[in-house]
C-alpha cells in the first residue's frame, strides 16, 4: 500500500474504529476479491464491534492499494460518507490493467448492461482517476432510494464523459442502485428537431429491450412531438425501467435538460454547473478538475508512445506543466507523438506559443483540435457576454484579478460584474480563487490566448478593417491592471 494511504489510515484509525461496523463492510470487500472468507471469520470472532473494526483495520494496513480503494468504496456504499471523506484525498493510483479488472468487478454482467445501454467503452489509452471516480459513485449511491440528479461539470476536455462512463463500470453499483439498467444518451448542441430524434431513438431502444424480455409488450409508433416524447420516456422509465440510470452526456442548454425532467435518476455531464437549477428533485454535483496529476498525464503520454514514464524525454514534464495536465491536450499530443515520436520539442513550443490550431488529431474526445474545443464554450455565450469575455483573453498568464478591476475595464457596476463573472465560472470558462477576499478571478491557460481572440472576435476599426489582436482595443485591460495594481497586493 502506498505510504500516503497507509498514513491516512493510521491517522483516521480512531474515528474508524469507533464508528464502523466491520460486518457491513466485509461483504463488499469479499466481492471485490480483497478479503478472504477465512479473514472474515477471524474478524467476526472478535467479541465486540469495536474489536472487529480494529481487526479489520489492522488487516487492511497489511494489504495493497486495491484493498484501500475497496474499503473506501464500502464506506461509501454503507453511507459512511463522513468517514469516507477522511480517506478520500489519499486514494492511491493503480495501474490501468489493475483498475480495469477491479472496477469492472470481473463480471460479464456489467459489460452486458453497459453495452445494452449504449455506454461507451474505455478509450484505448486510459488512466484511472480513482478519487474523482469514487466521488461520482458516492453521489450515485444517493439515487438508490429516490430519483434525482448528479451533475458532473468541468471545462472542455477535462474528461467528464470518460469519468461518467467509468463510474458506472461497477458491479455493486449497478446491482444495488440501478437494476433497471444504465442508459446513455449523447446530447451536444441540439435544436428541438434533433432533440426529438434523440429521444425517439432512446424510446425505441428501451421498447425493443423490453419486448425482448417480455414478448407480450409491443412497439409503438415514434412520438411525434417533444411533449409526446417526454411523456413516452416518462412512462418507460417509471413503469418498465424503474430504478434505472439515464446518463445525459454533454448537455449545453437548460431547455434541453427540461425534456428529461421526468422523475427518474439522471447523471449528466456539462460545462455549465448551473444547468440543473432548472429541473426538479434532489441534486448533487461533482467538479472535474481541469488537469490530471503529473504522474497520470505522463502515464498517458507513455502509453501513447509505448515507453515507461521514466523513459520519457525532459520535454514531457514541460508539456504537462504547460497545459496544466489537460486530458484533452495530453490525449491530442500523445496521439500526434505516436506518429511523430521526434516532435516533443515542437509540440512543447506550439503550446508555449499558444498555436492551438496546430494541435489537431483524431482522439477519443469530441473535438479533433484544441482550438475547436475551447471556442465551442465561448460561442454559446450571449453577444454581450462574449464581448466581455474576449476582454479577458488578453490577461497575462497566471494573473488573478478582483471584480473591481473588471468593473473599471467594462464600465459596469460591481454587482453587474459579479453576476457576469458568476456566469463565466458556472460555464467553466473562468476560475475563482476563494482563498482571498474579495475573490480573485483567472483564466485557464487554454482559454487565455491571442488565437482565441482572433477566432472569436473579428473586431473591426472605423474603416471596417479587421483589427490585429496586438492592436486590439481590449488591451486596455493591461492599463486597468496597472491602475488597480494595489488591489492585487
UniProtKB/TrEMBL annotation:
<protein>
    <submittedName>
        <fullName>Apoptotic peptidase activating factor 1</fullName>
    </submittedName>
</protein>
<dbReference type="Pfam" id="PF00619">
    <property type="entry name" value="CARD"/>
</dbReference>
<dbReference type="InterPro" id="IPR027417">
    <property type="entry name" value="P-loop_NTPase"/>
</dbReference>
<dbReference type="InterPro" id="IPR036388">
    <property type="entry name" value="WH-like_DNA-bd_sf"/>
</dbReference>
<dbReference type="InterPro" id="IPR002182">
    <property type="entry name" value="NB-ARC"/>
</dbReference>
<keyword id="KW-0677">Repeat</keyword>
<keyword id="KW-0053">Apoptosis</keyword>
<dbReference type="Pfam" id="PF00931">
    <property type="entry name" value="NB-ARC"/>
</dbReference>
<dbReference type="InterPro" id="IPR001315">
    <property type="entry name" value="CARD"/>
</dbReference>
<dbReference type="Pfam" id="PF21296">
    <property type="entry name" value="WHD_APAF1"/>
</dbReference>
<feature type="domain" description="CARD">
    <location>
        <begin position="1"/>
        <end position="90"/>
    </location>
</feature>
<dbReference type="InterPro" id="IPR048975">
    <property type="entry name" value="WHD_APAF1"/>
</dbReference>
<dbReference type="InterPro" id="IPR011029">
    <property type="entry name" value="DEATH-like_dom_sf"/>
</dbReference>
<dbReference type="InterPro" id="IPR042197">
    <property type="entry name" value="Apaf_helical"/>
</dbReference>
<dbReference type="GO" id="GO:0043531">
    <property type="term" value="F:ADP binding"/>
</dbReference>
<dbReference type="GO" id="GO:0005829">
    <property type="term" value="C:cytosol"/>
</dbReference>
<dbReference type="GO" id="GO:0042981">
    <property type="term" value="P:regulation of apoptotic process"/>
</dbReference>
<dbReference type="GO" id="GO:0006915">
    <property type="term" value="P:apoptotic process"/>
</dbReference>
Amino acid at each position: 500500500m502506498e505510504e500516503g494511504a497507509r498514513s491516512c489510515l493510521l491517522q483516521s484509525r480512531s474515528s474508524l474504529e469507533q464508528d464502523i461496523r466491520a460486518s457491513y463492510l466485509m461483504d463488499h470487500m469479499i466481492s471485490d476479491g480483497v478479503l478472504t472468507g477465512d479473514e472474515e471469520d477471524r474478524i467476526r470472532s472478535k467479541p465486540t464491534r469495536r474489536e472487529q473494526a480494529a481487526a479489520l483495520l489492522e488487516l487492511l494496513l497489511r494489504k495493497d492499494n486495491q484493498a484501500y480503494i475497496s474499503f473506501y468504496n464500502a464506506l461509501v456504499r454503507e453511507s459512511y460518507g463522513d468517514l469516507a471523506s477522511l480517506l478520500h484525498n489519499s486514494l492511491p493510483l493503480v495501474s490501468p490493467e489493475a483498475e480495469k479488472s477491479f472496477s469492472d468487478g470481473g463480471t460479464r454482467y456489467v459489460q452486458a448492461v453497459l453495452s445494452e445501454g449504449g455506454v461507451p467503452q474505455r478509450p484505448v489509452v486510459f488512466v484511472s482517476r480513482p478519487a474523482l471516480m469514487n466521488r461520482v459513485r458516492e453521489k450515485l449511491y444517493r439515487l438508490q432510494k429516490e430519483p434525482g440528479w448528479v451533475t458532473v461539470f468541468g471545462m472542455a476536455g477535462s474528461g467528464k464523459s470518460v469519468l461518467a462512463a467509468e463510474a458506472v463500470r461497477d458491479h455493486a453499483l449497478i446491482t444495488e442502485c440501478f437494476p433497471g439498467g444504465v442508459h446513455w444518451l449523447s446530447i451536444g448542441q441540439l435544436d428541438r428537431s434533433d432533440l426529438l430524434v434523440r429521444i425517439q431513438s432512446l424510446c425505441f431502444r428501451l421498447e425493443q429491450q423490453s419486448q425482448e424480455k417480455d414478448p407480450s409488450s409491443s412497439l409503438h409508433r415514434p412520438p411525434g412531438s417533444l411533449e409526446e416524447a417526454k411523456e413516452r420516456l416518462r412512462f418507460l422509465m417509471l413503469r418498465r425501467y424503474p430504478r434505472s440510470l439515464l446518463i445525459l452526456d454533454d448537455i449545453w442548454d437548460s431547455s434541453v435538460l427540461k425534456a428529461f425532467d421526468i422523475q427518474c435518476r439522471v447523471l449528466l455531464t456539462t460545462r455549465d454547473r448551473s444547468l440543473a437549477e432548472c429541473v426538479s428533485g434532489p441534486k448533487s454535483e461533482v467538479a472535474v478538475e481541469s488537469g490530471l496529476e503529473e504522474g497520470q498525464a505522463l502515464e498517458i503520454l507513455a502509453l501513447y508512445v509505448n515507453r515507461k514514464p521514466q523513459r520519457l524525454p525532459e520535454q514531457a514534464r514541460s508539456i504537462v506543466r504547460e497545459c496544466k495536465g489537460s486530458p484533452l491536450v495530453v490525449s491530442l499530443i500523445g496521439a500526434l507523438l505516436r506518429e511523430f515520436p521526434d516532435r516533443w520539442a515542437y509540440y512543447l513550443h506550439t503550446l508555449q506559443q499558444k498555436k492551438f490550431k496546430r494541435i489537431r488529431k483524431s482522439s477519443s474526445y469530441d473535438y479533433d483540435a484544441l482550438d475547436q474545443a475551447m471556442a465551442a464554450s465561448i460561442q454559446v455565450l450571449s453577444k454581450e457576454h462574449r464581448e466581455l469575455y474576449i476582454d479577458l483573453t488578453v490577461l497575462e498568464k497566471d494573473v488573478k484579478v478582483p471584480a473591481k478591476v473588471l468593473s473599471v475595464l467594462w464600465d459596469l457596476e460591481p454587482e453587474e460584474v459579479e453576476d457576469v463573472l458568476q456566469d463565466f465560472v458556472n460555464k467553466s470558462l473562468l476560475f475563482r480563487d476563494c482563498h482571498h477576499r474579495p475573490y480573485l478571478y483567472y483564466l485557464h491557460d487554454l482559454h487565455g490566448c491571442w488565437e482565441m481572440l482572433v477566432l472569436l472576435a473579428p473586431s473591426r476599426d472605423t474603416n471596417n478593417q479587421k483589427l490585429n489582436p496586438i492592436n486590439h482595443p481590449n488591451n486596455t485591460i493591461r492599463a486597468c491592471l496597472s491602475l488597480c495594481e494595489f488591489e492585487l497586493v
